[in-house]
């Protein structure tokens, strides 16, 4: 997609100004995702591709997500975690000392999967740390609403009295996913297997 050295997307303040992104800033300072191009995965599939509006709603409703990252030596690493979708942007939280966070600092490329209503989803892209206080507060409200997890925002990170048993002690960093390509694999006959190509992955 790009050539030449680039700043690591996981270190970009506010997660809004790195590379060519499928995330745009709106007039009120929030983040919003651009609409991807939908197409059938299988050649010759006669069914219409599933609109991203339907897929995005189901992705946001998932309770558990799996984040796949790559270590410095190329070793894959996959862990379950909770996540939210705010303004169309999938966001996850992780302790800065965890392996997945350290992997993202080294290599921002990642994938997130989830079992959603009607199909399983895979979202491939890059993850950037969010440290803007206003965006963190919006995300904290979303975590509270979805999971009942009370969070405070301080020094560009989340703080909480408790976390998941394997999350470690606070602070917790927030990462926003810039999607490049997503896939939907139906678990029923209601949807067509669909690939979504986002702006960051198109020429």
What are the key terms here?
203 residues, alpha+beta, Pnp Oxidase, Chain A, disordered N terminus
Q: Would you write up a description of this structure?
A:
It is a single chain. By secondary structure, the chain is α+β, with helices and mostly antiparallel strands. It contains three helices and 13 strands; from the N terminus they run E-E-E-H-E-E-E-E-H-E-E-H-E-E-E-E. The chain has helices spanning 52-61, 99-106, 133-147; strands at residues 23-25, 31-33, 37-40, 65-70, 76-81, 83-86, 89-94, 109-116, 119-130, 152-154, 157-159, 173-186, 194-197. The strands form three sheets. Strands 3, 4, 5, 6, 7, 8, 9, 12 and 13 form a nine-stranded antiparallel sheet that branches. Strands 1-2 form a two-stranded antiparallel ribbon. It is globular. The N and C termini lie close together (7 Å). One of its GO terms (molecular function) is oxidoreductase activity, acting on the CH-CH group of donors.
Number of helices: 3
CATH superfamily: Electron Transport, Fmn-binding Protein, Chain A
The share of residues in helices is 10-25%
Top-tier CATH class: Mainly Beta
The CATH topology name reads: Pnp Oxidase, Chain A
Distance from first to last alpha carbon: 7 Å
Organism: Streptosporangium carneum
Region (Disordered): 1-54
Protein name: Pyridoxamine 5'-phosphate oxidase
Keywords: Oxidoreductase
Question: Can you lay out the helices and strands and say which pair or pack?
Answer:
Layout: E1 23-25, E2 31-33, E3 37-40, H1 52-61, E4 65-70, E5 76-81, E6 83-86, E7 89-94, H2 99-106, E8 109-116, E9 119-130, H3 133-147, E10 152-154, E11 157-159, E12 173-186, E13 194-197
Antiparallel strand pairs: 1-2, 3-13, 4-5, 4-8, 6-7, 7-12, 8-9, 9-12, 10-11, 12-13
């Amino acid at each position: 997609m790009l050539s030449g050295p680039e700043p690591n997307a996981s270190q970009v303040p506010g997660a809004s100004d790195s590379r060519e992104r499928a995330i745009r800033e709106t007039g009120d300072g929030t983040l919003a995702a651009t609409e991807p191009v939908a197409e059938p995965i299988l050649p010759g599939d006669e069914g219409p591709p599933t609109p991203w509006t339907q897929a995005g709603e189901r992705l946001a409703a998932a309770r558990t997500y799996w984040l796949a990252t790559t270590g410095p030596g190329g070793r894959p690493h996959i862990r379950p975690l909770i996540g939210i979708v705010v303004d169309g942007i999938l966001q996850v939280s992780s302790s800065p000392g965890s392996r997945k966070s350290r992997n993202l600092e080294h290599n921002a490329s990642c994938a997130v999967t989830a079992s959603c209503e009607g199909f399983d989803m895979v979202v491939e892209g890059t993850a950037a740390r969010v440290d803007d206080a206003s965006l963190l507060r919006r995300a904290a409200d979303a975590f509270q609403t979805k999971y009942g997890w009370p969070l405070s925002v301080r020094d560009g990170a989340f703080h909480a009295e408790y976390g998941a048993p394997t999350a470690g002690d606070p602070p917790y960093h927030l990462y926003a996913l810039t999607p490049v390509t997503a896939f939907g694999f139906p678990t029923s006959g209601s949807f067509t297997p669909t690939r979504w190509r986002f702006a960051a992955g198109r020429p």
